[in-house]
Design goal:
about 300 residues, mainly alpha, three-stranded mixed β-sheet, two-stranded antiparallel sheet, 8 helices, 5 strands, about 40% helix, globular, transmembrane helix, membrane, Uncharacterised_pept_Zn_put, Metalloprotease
């Protein structure tokens, strides 16, 4: 899963260096590279300026005071830890059932994800708007073979970049052929929910704010810690949707058992970059989202370092 902003990240079995492109990856951050605005050049005028012999100087009123602007990192800290999204309540059930398509062909994979994203739109749109943000649906692209992503060059199985959720059909087709069919379905539901979680981060300013925080950190360890916070939150948001819609999906019985096993065995311990969180914490945050159905349960930015290791 992958989302990416100015840094890359990774996701579990699919974890790859993000996260606007988001982890378990458009990084967890938004796709594209964020650049500081360049300083405009000023060309001196060729004309000789004229001055009034008795210039008038206006003196500010003693009662007028200028409040200095808050440093960007202060605003960013508040955006990620006190976001309005955490105060709007539970996500409403989309009342969507699990898509009936199975990963037996590229067309079936495309149909599954297209239907799933429409359901995610239905559930998240009212919550984003209630929090005071503008909602717009992400685009979805299904890739085959070495087909490049339209928004970023990351090669993991799923990613979010520049408002586009990219999913590689090859990954799902292989899982369907070689692995447990129920595990394949649970993994597909998790992946698309995770990348959509990065989209929610973008819509609510969390993604940009996290990038600002990353730009103000010193050292790789601090940057990876920030990456894990945004990636684990995306996994928590994935759980939120399934938890909200569990009765209709339905996320129960054998399906839920397989989903729980899958999120509990998706970690980045094997990856020296440690950008997505270990399997224990990944399971904890995914299950927190599912159990609550509420984005308030996903405030990874206010959590202890140990809980996002």
């Amino acid at each position: 899963m992958h989302s990416r902003v100015a840094m890359s990240v990774v996701t579990g079995t699919v974890l790859v260096l993000v996260a606007g492109c988001g982890l378990i990856g458009g990084s967890g951050k938004d796709g594209g590279t964020f650049k500081a605005a360049s300083t405009p050049s000023v060309t001196p005028s060729s004309e000789t300026p004229t001055f009034s012999p008795t210039p008038t100087v206006s003196t500010p009123s003693p009662s007028t005071s200028t409040t200095p602007a808050e440093p960007p990192v202060v605003v960013a800290n508040r955006t990620v830890t006190q976001n309005r999204l955490y105060r709007v309540g539970a996500v409403p059930a989309s009342r969507c059932k699990e898509p009936t398509e199975r990963a037996t062909s590229v067309a079936q994979v495309r149909a599954y994800y297209t239907e799933f994203v429409h359901c995610l739109d239905r559930a998240w749109a009212p919550i984003v708007r209630k929090a005071g943000y503008t909602f717009w649906a992400p685009k979805v692209e299904i890739l085959v073979g070495d087909q490049p992503r339209s928004q970023c060059s990351i090669t993991d199985s799923a990613a979010y970049c520049g408002g586009v959720i990219s999913l590689k059909a090859d990954f799902d087709l292989k899982n369907q052929r070689r692995d447990n069919k129920l595990w394949t379905r649970a993994t597909m539901a998790f992946l698309v929910g995770h990348e959509y979680g990065h989209h929610i981060q973008r819509l609510t300013g969390i993604m940009d704010a996290s990038q600002t925080r990353t730009n103000h950190t010193n050292g790789t360890d601090a940057q990876l810690l920030e990456s894990r916070r945004i990636e684990l939150q995306a996994s928590c948001f994935s759980g939120v949707y399934l938890g909200a819609d569990r009765k209709y999906f339905p996320a129960t019985g054998a399906w839920l058992k397989k989903w729980n096993w899958m999120v509990a065995n998706r970690g980045d311990e094997w990856n020296p970059t440690r950008s997505h969180g270990n399997k224990t914490n990944h399971s904890r945050w995914s299950r927190k989202g599912f159990g609550s159905g509420n984005p308030a349960a996903c405030n990874t930015f206010a959590a202890s370092t140990a809980s996002v290791a």
